TrEMBL record:
Protein name listed in UniProt: Membrane protein
InterPro entries (UniProt xref): ABC3_permease_C (IPR003838), Lipoprotein-release_system (IPR051447), MacB_PCD (IPR025857)
GO CC terms in record: plasma membrane protein complex
ABC3 transporter permease C-terminal domain residues: 278-402
Family, as annotated: Belongs to the ABC-4 integral membrane protein family. LolC/E subfamily.
Topological type in the membrane: Multi-pass membrane protein
Domain of life: Bacteria
MacB-like periplasmic core domain segment(s): 27-246
Organism encoding this protein: Echinicola pacifica
Keyword field contains Aminoacyl-tRNA synthetase: no
Length: 407
């Protein structure tokens, strides 16, 4: 057995329960365990929040979105759409016309984002992460229907049981020269209400889904589209399909995946996670000062033992190694306990959702959790660094004990 490890473990397992140094070592171990557990839990919560945001956006946005690099819209043709559908991995192509418009219901009105979509938009997975009420239907060309966000419906006071009031959409157009009639300055059309969705405030308070033909007619768009949304087949990598689409379309178009469509939001979550990791690691470092104090006091108490070891031929490096390993044993024991407890708490929360968000209207009832092995790895690495930093000074002091003075 390694001599330095054997002696360090004997110090740690000391039977003198009333020894103040032993008590301080246990306190240091508990501090490391609590700090490690907190770090694992908080990082897992941030992972869960990131996954939740992705899921919420996936309920409304496409896996891949094609937009023109220059300008607001681009023309599409049957041949162009067929060339996209022919790409390996493309299951569905949804045509989209999106712009701001004025929506009126009764005496109330507001500016909303009108999103005209083809029928393929309303697949079986739509709004899977959110709440939906009513019918997932956009009506017919003769009687178009709209699907409203909960926020839009609330601000307009929309009553789905009211058969007398309908929605009316207004969109400005270029007036004819010399015309003074205000009716020539906008297009308008009537809509029924078929359903309400709730996925995220940014969508709920702004977006209204309408049939593609309705938006095309209201905006006089003809064959122009503002974007195309692509759904890939289940057996294909989204990244591979994105690469094939970009290769076909060239530099005139951008092809963005879900993360790229909301890069700012996801980047903000990752930055917050990084700062929380740094903050909790700093707190963990403060908790590890107990290791420094316990080792320093142990070095003072065991000066006679060190002198005996040196008299028996122990080198300074061996003495230093004993105290470094003593610190590592304290930290490693606390870290293992903290990692196990953190994993157990995260597993219970992920499985049973014991801790509620306390918001009845939330998409999820409890705090989301997702454990990633790299979080455990970085927690362990940071703890090793902190332990070595806290143990080095006491170990150096112990190795410089004068043998003659203490024998």
């Amino acid at each position: 057995m390694n001599i330095s490890y054997f002696i360090a473990s004997r110090y740690f397992k000391s039977k003198k329960k009333r020894n103040f140094i032993a008590i301080l070592s246990r306190i240091a171990m508990v501090g490391v365990a609590v700090g490690t557990m907190a770090l694992v839990i908080v990082l897992s919560v941030f992972n869960g929040l990131e996954d939740l945001v992705r899921g919420i956006y996936a309920s409304f946005d496409a896996e891949l979105k094609i937009e023109t690099v220059k300008g607001k819209s681009f023309e599409v043709s049957g041949e162009f759409l067929d060339s996209l559908r022919a790409i390996e991995g493309v299951e569905q192509v949804t045509e989209v016309i999106e712009d701001n418009a004025l929506l009126r219901y009764g005496e109330e009105q507001m500016v909303i984002t009108m999103k005209g979509v083809s029928d393929s938009f309303l697949d079986k997975e739509r709004f899977a992460q959110g709440h939906f009420s009513g019918e997932l239907d956009l009506g017919t060309p003769e009687n178009p229907s709209a699907i409203l966000g909960r926020g839009v419906a609330f601000m307009l006071g929309v009553n789905p049981d009211n058969e007398f009031d309908n929605l009316r959409m207004y969109y400005p157009k270029a007036p004819r020269a010399g015309s003074l009639d205000p009716r020539n300055m906008y297009n308008s059309a009537r809509l029924d209400v078929s359903g309400f969705y709730s996925v995220d405030k940014s969508f709920d308070d702004n977006y209204v889904l309408v049939p593609l033909d309705f938006a095309q007619s209201l905006m006089d768009y003809g064959v122009k589209r503002t974007s195309l949304e692509i759904k890939s087949t289940a057996n294909q990598s989204t990244a591979a399909v994105q690469s094939r689409l970009q290769g076909l379309l060239g530099d005139r178009f951008s092809v963005k995946n879900t993360d790229e469509q909301h890069a700012g939001m996801l980047r903000a979550i990752r930055v917050e996670k990084l700062f929380v990791f740094i903050t909790l690691t700093f707190i963990l470092a403060l908790a590890s000062f107990n290791i420094f104090f316990s080792l320093s006091m142990l070095a003072i108490e065991k000066k006679k033992d060190i002198s005996v070891l040196k008299a028996m031929g122990a080198s300074n490096s061996l003495i230093k190694s004993i105290y470094l390993k003593q610190g590592i044993i304290i930290a490693a024991t606390g870290a293992v306990i903290g990692l196990v407890l953190g994993f157990a708490i995260c597993w219970v929360q992920e499985k049973y959702g014991l801790i509620s968000l306390g918001v009845s209207s939330s998409v999820v009832d409890s705090y989301p959790i997702k454990m990633i092995w790299t979080d455990f790895l970085w927690t362990a690495i940071s703890l090793v660094f902190i332990t070595l930093l806290a143990s080095y000074r006491p170990a150096s002091i112990a190795s410089r004990v004068n043998t003659i003075e203490h024998l």
